[in-house]
Amino acid sequence: MSEMAGIPDRLPTRLTELLGIRWPLLLGGMMWLSDARLVAAMVRAGGMGFITARSSRTDEAFRQQLRDCRALTEGLPFGVNLTLSRRAAQNDVMLTRLRMALEEGVRIFETAGLPPTPLLPEIKAAGAVVVHKCAHVRHAVAAQNMGVDAVTLVGMEEGGHPGNNQLPTFLNGAYALERLQVPLALGGGIGHGRQIAAALALGADAVVMGSVFTSAVETPAHPAYKQRVVATDEHGTRAVLGSLGDTWRVIDNDNARKVAALEQAGASSYAAFGELISGERTQALAYHAGQHEEGMLSMGPAVGFARAIEPVASIVQRLQRECVQAGRQFQRLPLLA
Ligand SMILES: Cc1cc2nc3c(=O)[nH]c(=O)nc-3n(C[C@H](O)[C@H](O)[C@H](O)COP(=O)(O)O)c2cc1C
């Protein structure tokens, strides 16, 4: 693909080289949403995406997702997200799906949720690349010591599960860069290209985004959900379930307010929140049927930059343009003299 209106075709970093992509832009796995079409759109736009292995209801449906993505990316590499759960019984399926992905030729994985210990031997034996995502610098260092190829560190602004970490993305990143030798992607709260330039200036090798892509045309969700995303500004998310040590940042909808009220009233187990925190219910009511006041809609304040329902390629081009512009401003500083 040729250079476009001042946007370089490639912005090489250690992570673009490791992942075989043109720009250091990663679309983190998004439960229920990161399917073949969305991931392929990100890959074709020059970045990397990860199909969420947990989102397929059956192994065969997952295999089909991988085949669809391979067809849509026309040979470009794409990734699979393997999110481990605190509920151990839910993790066998991740190993099964790792094996299926390897059989289907996938060689790039994003692990998250828990240390990738149960998955790492088979990923490494296959010669595949693993980027482990976590929210604490000490977990990032532990993953590095375990042999992962790269780390994604997210801050407390992250949409989804930033863990009990209280540090924002850029502070986390600055500390991590003192201790990591493997390539680092930074994520959480990033939705404007000037933040990408800033992350690269900080020393990161890539950024990871999620929230800003939730209103993309290719995202498999009801138009009413996407309109709700577009209408939500940077103040429209909240973190709940911190009391369980499992902070979840979501759109501040009716459902989240009910969860917050229960939490305030002292609810102290997953069971106490019942259906309100069920992923299946979120999928059925909000993503499928468009009832956006129902369900836990993972989202961070970068949602304020999701200002239209537009194709992934347009979002990526905007981010690239803004990043280049910010880079030019940076060059005016006499740092390089
Ligand atoms: C709707 C949604 C669902 C997500 N689901 C997952 C998931 O299943 N596994 C995971 O590792 N990360 C998940 N994430 C986190 C993203 O992969 C990514 O790290 C995050 O979105 C980056 O922060 P940002 O939302 O501020 O851009 C999710 C994020 C969103 C917005």
Can you give a write-up of this model?
- This protein has 337 residues and is an alpha/beta fold.
- It folds into two domains: 14-213 and 313-332, Aldolase class I (TIM Barrel); 223-301, no CATH class.
- It has helices at residues 14-19, 36-44, 59-73, 92-103, 120-125, 137-146, 169-177, 193-202, 223-231, 254-264, 270-273, 279-288, 312-331, and strands at residues 25-27, 48-52, 79-83, 108-112, 129-134, 150-154, 184-187, 206-209, 237-240, 248-251.
- An eight-stranded parallel barrel has the order 1-2-3-4-5-6-7-8, surrounded by five helices. A two-stranded antiparallel ribbon has the order 9-10.
- 48% of the residues are buried.
- Bound molecules: flavin mononucleotide.
- Flavin mononucleotide binds next to strand 3 and strand 8.
What's the helix and strand layout?
Layout: H1 14-19, E1 25-27, H2 36-44, E2 48-52, H3 59-73, E3 79-83, H4 92-103, E4 108-112, H5 120-125, E5 129-134, H6 137-146, E6 150-154, H7 169-177, E7 184-187, H8 193-202, E8 206-209, H9 223-231, E9 237-240, E10 248-251, H10 254-264, H11 270-273, H12 279-288, H13 312-331
Parallel strand pairs: 1-2, 1-8, 2-3, 3-4, 4-5, 5-6, 6-7, 7-8
Antiparallel strand pairs: 9-10
Helix pairs in contact: 2-3, 3-4, 6-7, 8-13
The structure holds flavin mononucleotide.
